[in-house]
Amino acid sequence: MAVTWNSESSARRNGVIAIALPKGRLLSPVMTLFEGMGITCLRAFADSRRLICEDTDRQLQFLTLKPADIPTYVEYGAADMGIVGKDQLLEQCRDVYEPLDLRFGACRLVVAEPAELQKQDDPHSWSHLRLATKYPHLTEAYFSRKGIQAEIIKLNGSLELAPLVGLAERIVDLVETGQTLKENGLVEVEEIAKATARLIVNRASLKTKYHRVQALIEQMRKQVDAQAERARA
Ligand code: PRP
Questions:
Q1: Does ligand 1 have an atom closer than 6 angstroms to the CB of 155?
Q2: Which of 124, 132, 178, 184 can pair with 160 through a Cys bridge, CB separation 3.0 to 4.6 Å?
Q3: 118-126 long-range contacts, Cβ below 8 Å, gap at least 24?
């Protein structure tokens, strides 16, 4: 049987709003956010290998992806909306609308190096560095602004390993609790940026599905405010 490919996603054809969600550490607070809005179908992601689920009553479709792929899905309109860390948005500079800081998933992008190296290191004397990172563009821009030549080795995970095996002396990576740095004998030496989870929206969907998209943004905004209120109490 011949299989035909249709460039228009099923979400767009059926008037469904497709929302791309990040796998990994942001998924749990994202599930809490949607549960607060009465949406419970995301539990399917927690205990299976499913990559897509739907809330048919609300005409919502949820996709789970690697965080780095979410801005691409949203920019191209394969998803109408997405949730992703500000780190990925700063790295990728995609053409998407970013209406809401969701305030969870707070972390920092830092330069780190082995504790032994730090004892004799002076960041003011840096002129050339070799760094391993998942964020080549942010790293390049940061050191270029400081007039430091950065030789960048792009990796996709477990960055803390690179200095331990001599691949690079330093890394540029996210720090949340600091536990991974500590357990691998690394210390933070400079902070490059702060990041939290953000809601992003495809620019065409913002126009063509304006009322539904705005209603979802407002519902999420209320949830985020309510969560912040509970945290303060
Ligand atoms: C991230 C980041 C650090 C770690 C920091 O990695 O790249 O390795 O979390 O968290 P901590 O400060 O709370 O220890 P992630 O768990 O996403 O996996 P990865 O290394 O495979 O990218």
A1: no
A2: 184
A3: 118/187, 118/189, 121/189, 123/189, 123/190
Residue type, 190: E
Query: Residue 177 Cα, ligand 1 centroid: separation in angstroms?
Result: 9
185-197: pLDDT as tens digits:
999 999 999 999 9
Show the CA angle centred on residue 15, arms to residues 83 and 214, nearest 5°.
Answer: 50
Q: Which domain holds residue 59?
A: 11-105+196-232
Residue 1 inside a domain? The answer is: no
- As given in the structure block, the two tokens for residue 101 are 């800081």
CA 165 from centroid of its chain's CA atoms: 27
pLDDT tens figures, 40-54: 999 888 878 899 999
**Same domain (yes/no): 159, 171:** yes
Query: Are 140 and 207 within one domain?
Result: no
Beta strands 97-101 and 197-201 are: antiparallel
